[in-house]
Write a structure and sequence with these properties.
Layout: H1 2-42, E1 66-71, E2 87-92, E3 98-104, E4 111-112, H2 120-127, E5 132-135, H3 140-147, E6 153-155, E7 165-166, E8 176-179, H4 180-190, H5 206-210, E9 215-216, E10 219-225, E11 228-235, E12 240-245, E13 248-249, E14 260-261, E15 263-269, E16 271-273, E17 280-282, E18 288-294, E19 297-306, E20 309-314, E21 317-318, E22 326-332, E23 340-343
Parallel strand pairs: 1-5, 2-22, 5-6, 15-22
Antiparallel strand pairs: 1-3, 2-3, 4-8, 7-8, 9-19, 10-11, 10-23, 11-12, 12-13, 12-14, 15-18, 16-17, 18-19, 19-20, 20-21
Keywords: Signal
Protein name: DUF3048 family protein
Signal peptide: 1-18
Length: 347
């Protein structure tokens, strides 16, 4: 009898142990399933795209645009950080020297520069994207605009040696750089928000990209000056245009990453001198002729200023961009597009 009771007790203990193990395994399974569900629910950007590139978002899409004035003097090349800009405007400053307004939203480089001084038309272009404007210095008219509150801005004139760093491998005024973390720091100090609901640009879908029409283009060249000859050469394997300066591929100084563009928009605009120093006023409102380069094709289009943004139009309708990065070159309306040399491989 005792043996029977003992055997029954042992069977009961084994049953309890098995139930416990089963519950533990089920608990582990449930925990694992919950973790997977949690991973999916935390993937908030599934299906979302960055507003200025149209590419699938890997991070926060509600970051505010940051516009940085970047030096393009031949002594300032190669530059740092601009390969990560979503959009870059290239526009004449004084003489035949251009400067860049690099707009960052989807990617953030460690460092950007050399940073240079502001001009009114760059501030206006920046404001088309409600960007936090970064510059080191200003022209008299740009000073008036920024002092009057035209846009949130951080100027190296007041943060030289703190937020902005002077590098020892270049001489002033080509040696001012700003780490991106210092832009964030400066924005917090000044109470500027780095959150924004950025209005997206219009982008082609995959099928529309395959159907892009236009004349074939292998290379487009703009001659701003003897030391500033810009070319865009189509890279058929990558499906983007490589940017060249004076015949050499543009690249990032630190990483040597090539600078490329999925879209190249070359627009003509009236330029006029406003002082003896050679500063210009540039008409960003009236529209005009333009070339749009995408996927090895060239379209002659027109451009319009839509809420501060320079955008391509054809027959009165907006033309969509190929997903990716965009370079916009603004050139004088005289000689206009005649100053753009278009070549094919057979040329």
């Amino acid at each position: 009898m005792k043996k029977l009771i003992w055997a029954a007790a042992m069977l009961f203990a084994v049953a309890v142990l098995m139930i416990g193990c089963s519950s533990e395994k089920n608990g582990e399974k449930n925990k694992s399933d919950n973790d997977k569900v949690g991973d999916v629910s935390n993937s908030a950007n599934d299906g979302k795209k960055y507003p200025l590139t149209g590419l699938a978002a890997k991070g926060d899409i509600d970051q505010r645009v940051v516009g940085v004035m970047v030096n393009n003097h031949h002594k300032a090349r190669p530059q740092s950080g601009i390969y990560k800009a979503d959009i870059v405007y290239e526009v004449l400053a004084e003489g035949n020297i251009t400067r860049f307004l690099a707009l960052f939203q989807s990617e953030k480089p460690k460092i950007i520069g050399p940073v240079r001084s502001a001009r009114p038309y760059f501030i206006k272009l920046n404001n088309g994207y409600h960007g936090l404007f970064i510059a080191h210095g200003w022209s008299p008219d740009a000073k008036k605009m920024l002092k009057s509150g035209a846009t949130d801005n951080i100027n190296g004139l007041f943060y030289d040696g703190t937020l902005f760093h002077r590098v020892d491998f270049r001489k002033a005024p080509h040696n001012s750089y700003i780490p991106y973390k210092n832009i964030v720091k400066g924005a917090k100090e000044k109470g500027y928000s780095l959150r924004d609901d950025v209005k997206p640009l219009p982008f082609l879908n995959k099928e529309e990209v395959k159907q892009i029409k236009g004349s074939s283009v292998y290379k487009a060249t703009i001659k701003y000056g003897e030391q500033n000859v810009v070319s865009y050469v189509y890279n058929d394997k990558a499906g983007v245009f490589d940017r060249l300066i004076n015949g050499e591929k543009s690249h990032d100084r630190e990483t040597e990453t090539p600078i490329t563009a999925a879209n190249v928009l070359i627009v003509t605009s009236d330029h006029r001198y406003i002082d003896s120093y050679g500063r210009r006023a540039i008409d960003l409102k009236s529209g005009g002729d333009a070339y749009l380069l995408q996927k090895g094709k060239l379209k002659k289009v027109s451009w319009k200023n839509k809420d501060g943004r320079i955008l391509p139009y054809k027959n009165g309708k907006p033309v969509k961009f190929v997903p990716g990065k965009t370079w916009i070159n603004i050139i004088p309306s005289e000689p206009g597009l005649d100053n753009v040399k278009i070549e094919n491989k057979e040329s």
